[in-house]
Amino acid sequence: MSQPTSPSPSTTSVDSPSINSLGMPFVPIPRFSTLISIWPTRVRDFEPFSSEKNVAMENQCTNFGPDHPIVSITWKEATQFCEWLTEKELAAGNLSEDKVFRLPTDLEWSAAVGLPHEEGTRPDLRSGELDGYPWGASWPPPKNAGNYSQELGVDEYEFTSPVGSFAPNQFGIYDLGGNVWEWCQDFIDRSQDCRVLRGASWFNGYQDRMKSSFRNDLGQPDARYSSFGFRVALGTLHKR
Q1: How many domains does the chain have?
Q2: pLDDT grade, residue 74 (50/70/90)?
Q3: Average pLDDT of the residues in 5-25
């Protein structure tokens, strides 16, 4: 599937679809005054930050390219990228001073994937409680539902796939299921040891982990795995 054509860079707000100077498109999500990138952060998006801030791009998946999601990035590095991007866009006049690029919150990610209101005051209390998957209600996933474990036989990619390789959801957002686990801002529980990861990855094939409502609890802020990536949101500053 070919990727959608990106519009020219424009001043970024949270009222309508927009694109930043790196060519990252953002769209609104339900229930929040927040925009979210239509796909995970790509290698091409991360490269300028890597070069300028001397952040290594290690342990990328075999046969990755510029449109594959960046992987093996820690929560701290993902947050630093968002802070760098905010400074870059502010300096260019592409961003109002009351907005920042940041990781999505756990509930913003839920809204983006199409989940309704979830009970539970913390991500761990919401994890796996609602049924359904990014592709719908049925199991197993249909052909081309996303980039998951090769054991499922639903896609042709052994590791990561170029972003936008599969159909978007109803909000025009890609790869919310499979490809890479995506860092969120929130701590997963009251211990405040791990950050939330959402969406499963190319490595995953277990049914419970592929639910839209599942939260991965292995997110130590310094964890670095080839199945971990991140997606950027645009909104107001949010307590981390």
Answers
A1: 1
A2: very high
A3: 68
